[in-house]
Amino acid sequence: MLRKITPVIISSILLILSFPNFNFEFLAWVAFIPLFFAIDTKTPRECFYLSCITGAIFFLGTIYWLIHVTLPGMVVVMLYLALYFGLFGLISSYGLSGIRKFFPSHERYISLFFIPAAWVATELMRSHMFGGFGWNLLGYSQSYSLPVIQIADIAGIYGVSFMIFLVNTAIFFTIKDIRDKKITFTYLAIALFIVFISLGYGAFRVKNIFTGEQLRIALIQGNIPQTKKWDANFREEILNKYESITRTAASEKIDLVIWPETSVPGFIGSERGLTDRMMSLSKSIKTPILVGAPTEDGEAYYNSAVLLSEDGRILDIYNKMHLVPFGEYVPFKKVLSFVERLAPSPIGDFSFGTKPTVFKFFIERSFKDKGTTWKLVKKIKFSCMICFEDIFPDIARRFVKEDALFLVNITNDAWFMRSSAPYQHVQSSIFRAVENRVNVVRAANTGVSCFIDQKGAITGAIGSEKGSIFIDGFKIHDIVLNNTRTFYTTFGDIFAYICALFVLIVILRTRWKNT
Fold it and tell me: What's the structural domain count of the chain?
């Protein structure tokens, strides 16, 4: 038994090391090779179990931080996500056996693309089924390798996952051929050629210079402990802290201030005193402020982002559309109501937002021409993703299609303490920036609060010698706005769906030939 699972353990460890906080991203390009050897020629059932074990160990090593919220929940999520690894093993086993039997002369060439496509298909399912949890997809391991991730503006995150898996598959086939004394590097050459083309495109895109209107934004990081956030005894302390940091930041000329998710400890709109206080702040600093706050409408409660104008008005509100199951609501509440009794902290009872709000505000610019000073008023449009909404590519894409010029992610990762969670979360925002070629600006309660440009580079962040999480402060940075439409923005995850269709066709065709 130990001999069987040793390669599986090695693959799991290599994958874990590819992600934060280790960041040995190059290991992802070879991480699956031990697993391939473990499941090679095995029965479908064995392939499923061995792949499940790989997934379970991987997710234990990467989403362990859920233990800070709930131990039973962490175990359930880990085992659930591991099933997608198992599904990949099962699909690969059925598909490869059929390919081997019915396409012997083209077996390796079809398999070379079938295996990565099967992986992409399971990642696509994981990102959508039961609300979706596309955390730590394989492609995210390359978030800081800028030339590698530029193809995301065509193929999305799944395109990068496919390319990594293609290299793993090609190396595996090459090692097998060498072992069997069949010296051929054809499969590796095909894979490396595709990587070469991709890196060439990436190098070209990294050199691009984006031009347009400059916008100066201030990010505010309050670093409020979870134990204080909703304790009424600390409300004044929290508001004073955010106000103080904001006024300090506003001593410089800025166009927009952004606070994190639920940074306002009360209901904006329905709590008159609190609402007036926030309006007075934006009016006194003469700058629009985007804040995270709960709002209510009748008996419905929302996790919201609220934009306050420079003259103290509420311009617009966005209500979070994709809520966290068992965190912000209980799915199938009539059946699963017992979960609330088992949870170590209260589960929210938020309602789903229904529309992709595009916030609008105006900036004033002055310039001189022939001794005359001209003033121009320009409309700025942006959208906000709350909490883990940035792990869903379709949400970001939908906002950009609605003409948002940049995206904001307000979040609170303090739940997960000093772990890899905040750094893993940033990786999603990096890909949303590249996919749509827009700036993504992140304001987090305890970090990571940063600015990400259209090429996925982090160009500024709140930080000190203590790091970028669990510190308070602000960061002022200029972003360049541009109005572009990428292939990905227009067509979405068409590449991933083509991969899924290819897998389905191969399996159906081989099953049909077998009848």
Answer: 2
